């Protein structure tokens, strides 16, 4: 593998021809060999940012993009040396698996024998060695994802960009491929940007996570930092569930105007000790039970409890909020 | 059992229609062609394949149709690509209407248009005379026929190819681009294979339409014989039914043979990569 490079974006903004702002001016530095996850709801600008890095969109006047010391702002996508896995994979239907994986090498004029060797090596890496001659429409979703990945890394790209690489797959397969992908990225040691709207995916794959909203970077940091110390309610809510209670009983008991907390920070106890609440619904989820509760004034919140919790809908309980935080 | 009977009920009218309106008249036509024309000593089929006059007519027809088909595809492909990729430039709707306008014209009108453009009193004639002193007349020769064929083939083809271009996933092209492919390579490696089906279908339609074109040629009154005109002559001027029938069968077979070869080639290209 080639030596990993840093990616630096300076003052990169994107305005569409009709004047809408897809991305506010943004500075971002991605370390060599680091995997950065761009996380946010659809329309937040994360895919636009990814397309700017690979050159399929240009930044507004004044924006600069560097790979290492190389300013690639004006370099066309075909010359940037980026490996891209597109959402939906965009595999070429007129070529078989080997044809897809070897396409970038063919373009580079690599001779047939070396190409075959390299394709075999790549397919081995993504554990698809036996499928080289398969047609694309004969592959499962998970296999397509691996072919797309093999095609992107076969050209020894300077950076690797993945746009929602696992979104098209069913939940179970996604879990497994997430682990495989994390391992592969570590093996490759390549600088990588992953776009996803799935917080679990972002936290598992990203060394750092950049949370985006409405064309802005909300917060950038290690997954743990973002979860424990969110810079805004948006970040807190996007990384897991965030509950908020305010006024009345909360003010009297906790002495604050409002409380924000996560569902696992609530302990449910027999009535008497904490905030009085009523169980509205109970969902048994195996490793834990999820309770939906309401206060006397109708405010709703969620609590997670151990799988042996005995409360049932209609019960009155008291909620002890462990890490009470001032909102 | 019930399912099979239901199928029979649905299929029976189709079979009757097929027999009554396709197979029987066709068989009759083929039979007439086997008869010996008056004053001759061989069947019409034998005459048609041995007499140079008919041969020449067949070669003219196939050459003109193949040429017009290829020219149509070569012109229509870039136009369709442009229209499909630029869904909202100013004047697009007007341009589309103008392009598709000749769709409904019968061959006679197309022939008349060609005369207006390139005939003895035509626009081209006047222009070329004014510019070089030498009048230019194309309408009544091969070039005139060719232009006429393009008139009615282009609108049909542009419609078909535009839909096909719109169906190409733009991510395929972007993926090829990030893998290093130049615009030309993207066109050859990704777009053309994706369009093979549509190009073959459009080409087949063009070719078959051109092989049977009558009105345009008739109106232009050209000296070049094409099969539909030859058939018309044999039928109306000489009342030579056997030869007219034999030529019709030959026209059908020649069209079928060329389309068969084109389809096989296209299928091989699609599998080739």
TrEMBL record, chain B:
Source organism, top-level taxon: Bacteria
Main location: membrane
Protein name: ABC transporter permease
Transmembrane domains' residue ranges: 58-83, 95-117, 137-154, 194-221, 241-262
Domain called ABC transmembrane type-1: residue spans: 58-262
Keyword Transport attributed: yes
Xref: Pfam families: BPD_transp_1 (PF00528)
Keyword Transmembrane on entry: yes
Annotated organism of origin: Salinicola acroporae
Subcellular location: Cell membrane
Topology with respect to the bilayer: Multi-pass membrane protein
InterPro entries: MetI-like, MetI-like_sf
Keyword tags: Cell membrane, Membrane, Transmembrane, Transmembrane helix, Transport
Protein family per UniProt: Belongs to the binding-protein-dependent transport system permease family. CysTW subfamily.
């Amino acid at each position: 593998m080639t030596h990993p490079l840093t990616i630096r974006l300076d003052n990169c903004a994107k305005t569409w021809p009709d004047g809408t702002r897809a991305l506010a001016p943004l500075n971002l530095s991605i370390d060599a060999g680091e995997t950065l996850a761009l996380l946010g709801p659809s329309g937040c600008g994360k895919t636009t940012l990814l397309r700017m890095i690979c050159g399929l969109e240009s930044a507004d006047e004044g924006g600069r993009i560097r790979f290492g010391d190389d300013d690639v702002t004006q370099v066309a996508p075909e010359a940037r040396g980026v490996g891209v896995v597109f959402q939906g994979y965009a595999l070429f239907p007129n070529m078989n698996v080997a044809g897809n994986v070897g396409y970038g090498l063919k373009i580079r004029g690599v001779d047939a024998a070396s190409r075959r060797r390299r394709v075999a090596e790549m397919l081995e890496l993504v554990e698809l060695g036996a499928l080289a001659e398969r047609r694309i429409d004969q592959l499962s979703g998970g296999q397509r994802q691996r072919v797309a990945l093999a095609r992107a890394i076969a050209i020894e790209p300077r950076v690797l960009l993945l746009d929602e690489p696992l979104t098209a797959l069913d939940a179970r397969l996604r879990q497994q491929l997430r682990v495989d992908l994390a391992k592969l990225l570590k093996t490759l040691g390549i600088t990588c940007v992953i776009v996803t709207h799935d917080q679990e995916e972002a936290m598992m794959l990203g060394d750092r996570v950049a949370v985006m909203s409405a064309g802005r970077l909300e917060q950038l940091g290690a997954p743990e930092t973002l979860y424990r110390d969110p810079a805004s309610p948006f970040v807190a809510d996007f990384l897991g569930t965030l509950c908020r209670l305010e006024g009345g009983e909360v003010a009297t008991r906790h002495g604050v105007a409002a409380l924000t907390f996560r569902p696992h920070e609530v302990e449910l106890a027999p009535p008497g000790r904490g905030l009085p609440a009523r169980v509205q619904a109970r969902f048994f989820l195996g490793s834990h039970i999820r309770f939906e509760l309401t206060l006397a004034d109708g405010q709703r919140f969620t609590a997670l409890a151990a799988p042996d919790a005995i409360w049932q809908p209609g019960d009155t309980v008291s909620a002890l909020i462990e890490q009470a935080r001032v909102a | 059992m019930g399912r099979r009977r239901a199928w029979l009920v649905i299929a029976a009218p189709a079979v009757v229609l097929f027999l009554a309106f396709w197979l029987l008249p066709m068989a009759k036509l083929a039979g007439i062609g086997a008869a010996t024309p008056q004053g001759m000593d061989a069947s019409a089929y034998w005459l048609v394949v041995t007499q140079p006059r008919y041969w020449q007519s067949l070669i003219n027809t196939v050459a003109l149709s193949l040429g017009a088909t290829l020219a149509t595809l070569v012109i229509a492909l870039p136009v369709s690509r442009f229209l499909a990729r630029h869904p909202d430039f100013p004047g697009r709707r007007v341009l589309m209407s103008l392009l598709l306008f000749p769709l409904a014209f019968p061959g006679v009108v197309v022939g008349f248009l060609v005369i207006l453009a390139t005939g003895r009193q035509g626009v081209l004639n006047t222009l070329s005379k004014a510019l070089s002193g030498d009048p230019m007349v194309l309408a009544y020769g091969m070039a005139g026929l060719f232009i006429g064929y393009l008139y009615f083939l282009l609108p049909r083809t542009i419609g078909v190819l535009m839909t096909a271009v719109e169906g190409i996933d733009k991510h395929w092209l972007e993926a090829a681009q990030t893998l290093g492919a130049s615009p030309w390579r993207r066109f050859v490696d990704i777009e053309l294979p994706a369009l093979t089906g549509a190009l073959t279908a459009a080409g087949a339609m063009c070719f078959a339409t051109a092989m049977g074109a009558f009105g345009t040629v008739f109106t232009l009154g050209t000296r070049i014989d094409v099969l539909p005109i030859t058939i018309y002559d044999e039928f109306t001027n000489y009342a030579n039914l056997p030869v007219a029938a034999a030529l019709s069968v030959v026209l059908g077979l020649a069209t079928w043979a060329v389309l068969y070869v084109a389809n096989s080639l296209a299928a091989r290209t699609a599998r080739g990569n």
